Amino acid sequence: MQSFNFLDLFQGITTLISSPPTILFGRLGLILLGMVLLYLGKKGVLEPLLMIPMGLGMIAVNAGVLFLDPATAGHIVSGTATNTDPAIAGRLVEQAAAGKMPGGLFMSPLVEKTDSLMYLMQVDFLQPVYTFAFSNGLIACFVFMGIGVLLDVGFVIARPFLSMFLALSAELGTIITFPVAIALGLNPGEAASIAMVGGADGPMVLFTSLTLAKHLFVPITVVAYLYLGLTYGGYPYLIRLLVPAKLRGLKMPVRPMVKVTPDEKLAFSVVGCAVLCLLFPSAAPLFLSLFVGVAVRESGLKYFIAVIDGPILYGATMFLGLLLGVLCEAATILDPKVIILLVLGIIALLLSAVGGLLGGYAAYFFSGRKINPVIGIAGVSCVPSTAKVAQKEVSTVNPESLILPEALGANICGVITSAILTGIYITIIPLLGK
Amino acid sequence: MTPALKASARHWISGTVIAFTGVAVSRGVASGFEGRPHALFALAGQLVALGGLFIILLGIRRRLSRANADGPPPGP
Known about the structure:
The structure holds two protein chains of two kinds. In chain A, 71% of the residues lie in helices and 1% in strands. Chain A is an all-alpha fold. In chain A, helix 10 (160-169) packs across helix 22, helix 14 (217-242) runs parallel beside helix 21 (385-397) and helix 21 (385-397) runs antiparallel to helix 22 (404-432). The termini of chain A are far apart. Helices cover 79% and strands 0% of the residues of chain B. Chain B has three helices and no strands. Chain B has helices at residues 3-7, 9-29, 36-69. Chain B is elongated, with a radius of gyration of 17 Å.
C-alpha cells in the first residue's frame, strides 16, 4: 500500500509549516491581526466598513497558501518586474520549476508583465479587480466621487479663510515627514508617499504611492488605512491633552442665516476643478472625481446621487478593504522598510493633528477668543471622522456648543489641500530624479 | 445669471480671470525658462491661481454678509 501523509489532506497547514520561520511567524501574526481588526471593526473602535472585509481578507490570504503548479509559479516569478536581485530571482525560478513556490489563488500584486498578467487573470480570482480597478487608482477615485457627493462645499465657501488656514495647519505632518523620511534613508518617492499619511486621506495615499513608490505601495497603504482607523480612537486623547476643558467647551459665534446657494457651489466647483486640473494635471483624476461628486450633488441629480453614494461608494469601499486585506500576505508585507513606515506614519498623523490644533489656537487668538480651538483638528482630512471627533469632544464638556459646521468646513478644505499636496508631490518628485 | 450670482459678479469675473492668468503663468510662461526662474514662475503662477479662487470666495462671503445685514430670507 502506498504511504499516505495525513497532512496532505490539509495543504494550507503543510505549506504553512514548510515556510521559512520569518514567513511562518509573519503569517500567523497577520492571521491574528486580521482577527483583531475584524473584532475592533465590529465593536466600532475602528471603521467597520473597511476593517471587516480587510480583516477577513488578511486571515484568508495568509491561511490559504498553496504550493503552486510550476506554470503559475513561473508566471509570478518571471512576470514580476521589480525582482532585480539575481540571486533571489534565480532561487525563485528554481522553486517555481520544482512546483515548491508557495502562493495564493487570490492575486499577484507585483506581477507587471502583460503575458503573465493575462495568464494570472485566469487563475487568481481577485486579479481582474486588482488590475482593472485598484492598481490604476480607479477604486480611490470611486471613493473620492462618493466623498464629493457627501460633501457640502457650502461650509468651506461660508468661511473660506478659516477653513483654508486650519486645513493648511493640519498638513504639518504631510510636509515635515517628507524630510524626516529622507533622513531615515527612504528615496523621495517613498518619502512623499508615507508623508501623505499626514493628510489622513486613504485614497490620496493610495494614489501617491501607486504613482511614486509602486514597490512599497502595499505596506504604505496598509499602514495608512490602519492608522486612519486609529484617528477615531487616538485623536480624542490628543485633544484632551492639548486643549483645556474650559476652551473645549467654548461656544462659537452666531452663524448667518443666509446660506450659499447651490448655483454658487456648482459654479465654484467648475472654476476650482478647471484651475486645479490645469495646475496639477497629475492629480486631475482625483480632482475630477471629487468635483464630479460635488457637481452631481449641487445639480440635484437624484438618480446619480443614489448611484454614487450607494453602490459606487460602498462597493468601492468593500473591495478596497478586501483587496487591502488580501495584499497583507506575509511574503509581500514583510519588507524591512515596514518598521520605518510604521514609525513615519504615526509621526505624520501626530504632527498633522498637532498642527491643526495649533492652527485652532491661532484662530482662537486672532478672532478675539471667539473660535473654539478644537475645530483645528478637523483640518486633518479624514472626512467626516475628525469633524465628528472634534464635535464629540466639545459636546462632552459643553452639550450646547455646536462646532460641526465650522469643523466640516475645515475638514472639506483638508481634502482639497491634501489633493493639492498630492499634486505637488507627484509633479515635483519625478523632476528631482532628473 | 441668478440674482445671487449678479450680486458678486465683479468678484466672480476678476477671480476667474486672475485664476486662469495664474495658470497661464505657471504652465505657460514658466515653461519658457529653466532652473530657478522656471520654479519661481511656476510657484508664483500657482499662488496667483489659488488667489483667484480666494477672490471668488471673498465675493460669495461679501454677498452673504450683505444678505444677512438686510435680514433673513422670507419664509415659505
